């Protein structure tokens, strides 16, 4: 089915991936809570593509921080296992973790390595829950005990919302925020782990990832609608960021959508 993606499956197309609104106590700091229930059988290599975000995830019986990526992170989840996570809003992770995001780029770090004693027992209590849904609920409940007093910086929200349309949007963003190029770059590194040009590329790619789910999506249409100069530009960027070709992503998402429509699963796939 998948040519160059024969051994690599896009995250969200592997198993049953679902997103939920975070619990009320977390909504100011997290975009969503999510579950990915993996199928039984042989483990496949899964590609988790960059989205400009940071997650706290429960996987393999322990809590990890999934830092911001600049290319797809490859993993091989346990067949039949469950991954639960909460995804930070733009700029929120730095205050929760006490780190600038440059320290986490491309890394998966045990939460205990960052929080020390504060993280003691959290993974065990989550693992004691009986079902996948119960584990996610318990993860959210545990996180509610650590909500910082300050909300995410509004500048980070503005930056995240404004980029993704090409580098021409960066000068307009600087004017809107009334900051210099150097200040914008510093704030992006603190909140997202990389500069505005890289974040812009990642968010444009995420626009493609949203549009590719349309039933009538075509590669030529996706290139124009996602803000790429042409189909060749789309192919280069998507391959660099995801390790998959646009054609492979289109086939996988189409197959997954039809598979769900046939009644074998449901959920959103935006990782």
Write the layout of secondary structure elements.
Layout: E1 8-10, E2 16-20, E3 30-37, E4 45-48, E5 55-59, E6 62-66, E7 73-75, E8 82-88, H1 93-97, E9 108-110, H2 111-115, H3 122-127, H4 132-143, H5 154-162, H6 169-177, H7 181-192, H8 196-211, H9 219-226, H10 231-242, H11 246-264
Parallel strand pairs: 1-4
Antiparallel strand pairs: 2-3, 3-8, 4-7, 5-6, 5-8, 6-9
Helix pairs in contact: 5-6, 8-9
Instruction: Supply the number of helical segments.
Output: 11
Taken from the alpha-carbon principal axes, the silhouette is: globular
Main β-sheet description: 6 strands, antiparallel
Major sheet: arrangement of strands:
2-3-8-5-6-9
Helix content: 40-55%
Distance between the termini: 21 Å
Task: Give helix and strand order, one letter per element, not per position.
Answer: EEEEEEEEHEHHHHHHHHHH
Subunit organisation of the chains: single chain
Low-confidence region ranges: 1-6, 264-271
Average predicted confidence as pLDDT: 89
Number of strands: 9
The fraction of residues assigned to DSSP E strands is 15-25%
Structural class: alpha+beta
Radius of gyration from the alpha-carbon trace, in angstroms: 18 Å
